Amino acid sequence: MDITIEVYAEKEGYIRSNQVTVTVGEGTVQPGDNEDVSLKADIIPAISFSISPGSINFGELGPRDTSGPFTITLTNEGAWNLQITSTVTDEAEHLYVDGLKLDDVKWDVFSTTILRDGDTDCIATLTVPETYTLMGRQNGTLIFWAIEAP
Amino acid sequence: MLCRVLRLSLLLVVLSLIIFPSQVLALGLGVTPGKLDFSVQAGGAETKTLNVINQSDRESPFRVYVEGEFEEWFLISPGDFTLAPQQSKDVEIVVAPPLTASDEHDFSICVVSLPAGSDLRIGAGIKVPAHVQILEYPVALILGGGIATLALVVLTSILIRWRRKAHNA
After folding, report:
1. Could you tell me the CA-to-CA distances from A42 to A45, A134, B160 in Å, in that order?
2. Distances B134 to A23, A50, B130 between C-alpha atoms, Å
3. ipTM
4. Which CATH number do you get for residue B125?
5. Which of A26, A38, B70, B137 has its CA 20 to 30 A from that of A143?
6. Is the peptide bond preceding residue B78 cis, with omega within 30 degrees of 0?
7. Which domain holds residue B146?
């Protein structure tokens, strides 16, 4: 049903100085007093990050050799800015503990900050000591630790 | 010929994914809340929950432990578990300082995921700061309890003496 409503005000001694046009559309459905309003929110963890890849094979190396650069990508997937540090252990006569560098510094002084929704590449290299005695595949672990950035 | 090369390349990519899965898959984890505050009386206990989520694209093992001077105050359950991709778990963190404990102390709740593998394995860990405040027992309550106990002892002894006198008489 179409209706026209005229709305105006009058006062003695005054004249109408302006006119406002009001258009009435179809409108939207408003929830009634007893109707539920749907609320949605996608909550992400406070601290969350991912690392790719899951392991590194530096290839064939001998004493005095330094491996080629190996890129590790760290991605912040949480709500807070992160500070990333690292720890290294091995059972390979300190091959990784002594020889692993991240972004051209030894792993124990490596530190980087990743802002929310950000990511960063970290370059890993391995130098085999001149006096290293073991041969064959050598295993170790590199753990990246995340804390809230100061 | 080009088709054969393309087919061979595709086969090599698939084979490399099968043979070296850990080198291409991502490892990830998340925790919430990002910090824990405990307020507990010496001799008491308080429990908080830490939610851990596996954000890797593979099943991964997790370990939760505490670093700090008095880490023996903590009980973590479960401390070791495995989660499927995108699966999460509530971990109970109980702190129970002894009666001799006092002051405030800072700890780190460490959550680490280190999938099995060889060469240089890469793991992901998160350190959640935990602050423990040891609440003092209210002095008035301690004094009140002591006075009440003393009064009870005195009254009991008076009552016993009075009954003995009455019995002897």
Report:
1. 10, 51, 71
2. 66, 36, 13
3. 0.75
4. 2.60.40.10
5. B70
6. yes
7. 138-169
